[in-house]
Each structure stands twice: as structure tokens, then as C-alpha cells.
Amino acid sequence: MTEPKSLASVYGRRLRRTMFWALALAVTACGGGGGGAVVTNPPFVPLLAGVRLSATSPYSPGCDAAISTGTLYEHAEVEPSMAVNALNPANMVAAWQQDRWSDGGSHGLVTAASFDGGRTWTNANPAVSRCAGGSAATAGDYERASDPWLTFSADGTAFLLSLSFSGAILAPGSASAMLVARSSDGGVHWGTPTTLIADGAAGFNDKGSISGDPTDPLSVYAVWDRLSSDNRGPSYFTRTRDAGLSWESARAIYDPGVGNQTLGNLLIVLPGGALLVVFTELDGTATGTTAALKVIRSDDQGISWSAPIFIADERATGTHDPGSGALVRDGIALPSVAVDRSGVVYVVWQDSRFSGGARDGIALTRSLDGGLTWTTPRQVNGVPAAAAFTPTVRVRDDGVMGVSYYDLRNHSAATGTQVTDYWLATSTDAVSWHDTHVSGPFLLSTAPNAEGLFLGDYQGLGVSGNEFLPVFVAVTGDLANRTDVFVVPIT
Q1: At what angle do helices 17-24 and 5-15 cross, to 10 degrees?
Q2: What does the alpha-carbon distance between residue 121 and residue 119 come to, in Å, rounded to a whole number?
Q3: Contact 242, 233 (CB under 8 A)
Q4: Does an H or E element contain 20, and which?
Q5: Which string of DSSP letters, residue by residue, matches 193-252?
Q6: Order of strands across the sheet with 289-298?
Q7: Average pLDDT over the chain, rounded to whole?
Q8: What is 155-206 written as a DSSP string?
Q9: What is the largest CA-CA distance in the chain?
């Protein structure tokens, strides 16, 4: 199904982001994020007992040793990931981009580990970029890092996946890699990164995720999309069968063809051991871009894969400030997926179908048969009249579902400012939902601008016992430290 013209332009930004980043890197503007002024901002108030995970930047100015081509938002953190250790649910790890650049990536990825259910945290600085101490000898000699993703294996080992790169996408002299670092002490210390794939100017590896196999302590899987100079964007996959000591050669497991790509590949393991990879397929046409959620399945731990199974059309329109019209870079075209103990699979995404294309809400669908069929999408966000964006889904062991998201329900048309809040919607039946106000309000207008006001293409959400743990970015109002990462445990 071809989306409306406005949607085609939104998804087109994803499909053609190589062009945007290449052009952005030709700009010579640079800076430190606007100085130390403080703007008028509603007090940031986590409504429940919350903890700030991030601090000032651990990196030295100019540490990437690159020609600055964009705006550096020093001390600004975006795009957190979160994982909980199933062997010890009080142990959890978060990760985020530190010091975001306007034209892609950040100085490095910072992690934080907790051993008391998220009440206190210890930060670390894995060597996945030059600023974090990476070098040719440690596989981390890249100017920037992005897209952190975390998992624990079934034996309690933590894994961090990083997109690490130098230069503009597919530009002469550029390079990109998927690096994985391993921690045997719950995320306090990280070993030397391992390279899963490395490309020069002919390929760019993007939007990866990593998943431990809860049925096999030796198996961990990684997936991502790989953009190539011949205009393809297949899903790539690799795995370890020895707890991360070695990894198989990365390979394409689904290719949608010339002019098309996959995006937001996420792998989950069903209770019986089958693997599912959920992704958005973006197909270029003569009149625009089509977007659809699809899934492929493996019943042999990733050796072979099914043909893609259709989940739903994606009909997002994107988020804008309803007062100023400023673009928000949100989670459009990026699904979130979870599986419960019984094997029911849940997928959430940003979608405008519930308002006839007027604004995005949060859609959810379920599969009760291992990804073969899917229910009609239902709306999750509590105020349908307000735009909602960037959802994340997890399920507790007792079957309670949680979906975290941002929305604009408290936006004030009178002032024209984009007041944003963060919420957790919970449900026992995927039909009726209850909103808990996690934090806010805060102004989004002073967030880092990276192809739009940017908190991250995704946010983190963990489960520990009877608690949900949203890990999210909020705007501070301080131009010298625009954003911070918080966690708010919610029972």
C-alpha cells in the first residue's frame, strides 16, 4: 500500500538518509552546542522516584581527531538502550550516545550498570570509538559511535553492540563497522570490542540490535541493515555459539531488492527456541516510498530463514511542534518488539491510522502463533487527540504489558511551545490501557537537532520482577547540557 504524499516524504527521509548525511557532512559549521545559557523551561520532575544516569562528558575536546563538519552538542545524551540480567534481575545495564553530533553519531557510547534494581548506577566507557580509547589495535578506531544496543546471555554475560563509523555514509574514505563488547561482571567493565563486520565506502552498516538466547547460554545473535553502493539494504545476521569468544561471518538473510531496504531489525527468541526478526521494509517507487512491518522466522537458530511475513502497513506522518511546526526526529519506521513467557509476540510502532493521517499514535499488534498471523492493530496511547511517538514495549512475567512513549497532550497552543511528557501505558489484555505519568513536562525545542529535534530513534525499557524500568532522555533547558538520561522504576 502506498502511503499519502506526506508520509512518502517522511519515509523518504529514512530511505534517502544517506543523501542527507552526505550533504550534512559538507557543511562547515561547528560548535559546542550553543554555550552555557539557560532557557526558560518547565521544571523537569520525574513523578515517581527517578535516577539520573548520565553525567558530564568523559571525553576530551577534539578527541575524535576529525574535521568538525556539524554541530557538536557536548554533554548531550540521546538514544538509550536497556537490558536486565535474567539470572539476577537486580542487575541491569543501560547505554546511550554521548555528545551527539548534528550530522550523525556521537563521540562514543557510555554505559551504566546497576545491581540494586536501578536505584544506583556505575558508569563505564567501552572502547567502541576513538574518543573512548579505541584504536586500530582494539578495533575501535572510529570517529563516532551510534545505535547502542544491549543484551544479556542466558549465563549472565552482558553484550553491547555499537555502530562505529568514520566519514559520511558511502563517501570516499568512509568506514563503518558493527562492534560488540562483552562484560563478564554485569556491565561494570567491558572487554576489547570484536568486529562483526567492517566496510569501507562501498557499504554502511546501520541500526543494529543484539539478543541473547534464553534457551542456550552459548548463543547470542546480532542483526542490522547494510546499505550498499549498489542501492540495496538487506538484513544482515551473525551469531556466536561460544558465548562471544568468536562470531560467524556476517551474511544477508533477507534482501528486498534494488532501491529498497530493511530498517530497525530486531531479533527475539520464542520459548521453543525459534528466532523471529521483525523489521520495516522501505520500498522505493516511482511516486514515493511504501513502508510495511514484516517478519522472517528461523527454526534452526539462524541457519535458514522463511520468506517475509506481512505484519501491517506503516502509516506514520511524523511529529511536529503543533505551534511552530518544527520537525521532531522520532521513532518513525522503527518498531519495538517483545515476547511473553507463553510465546505471544507484541509489536508496537508509530502510526497515524487512528486519526485518518492527522497525527501519529501508538499502534500494537500481537501474534499468538509464532509470527505467522497478526491481530488488527489497536491504539495504545491514552489521549488520541495528542500526537504520540517513539514507543517501546516489554512484558512482565505475570503477563502485564508495558508500552512507554512520548506525547504532546500538555502542549500549550497559547504559548506555541512543544511541552512533552513521558508515559508508561500498561494492560493485562492488550485492549484496555492505563497511563502512568513517568516524567515531564519539558520543552523539546532545545533538544539536540539532528535531522530534527532529537531524543533518540528509540528509548529503553526493562522489566525486573514486578517493576517496569523506563530508561529515557529528557530535555534539561540548559544549552550547555541539553539532555540527560533517567530511569524511573514503576511498580
Answers
A1: 60
A2: 7
A3: no
A4: helix 17-24
A5: -EEEEEE-TTEEEEEEEEEE-TT-TT-EEEEEEEEETTS-B-EEEEEESSTTS--PPPEE
A6: 260-269, 275-284, 289-298, 309-313
A7: 89
A8: TS-EEEEEEEEESSTT-TT-EEEEEEEEESSTTSS----EEEEEE-TTEEEE
A9: 59
One-letter amino acid for residue 312 of the chain: A
In DSSP terms, 275 is beta-bridged to 269, 298
Q: Report the C-alpha gap between 31 and 428 in whole angstroms.
A: 48
pLDDT in tens, 330-382: 999 999 999 999 999 999 999 999 999 999 999 999 999 999 999 999 999 99
Domain of 396? Answer: 5-487
Identify the segments of the chain with pLDDT beneath 70: 1-49, 67-68, 323, 414-417
* Beta strand spans in 400-466 (E): 401-407, 419-427, 434-443, 453-454, 460-464
The CATH number assigned to the domain holding 77 equals: 2.120.10.10
Grid cell of 389 as nine digits: 511517538
Name the helix (H) or strand (E) containing 345. Answer: strand 345-351
Query: What is the spatial distance between Cα 196 and Cα 180, in angstroms, rounded to a whole number?
Result: 7
Number of domains in the chain: 1
pTM above 0.70, yes or no: yes
Contact 419, 406 (CB under 8 A): no
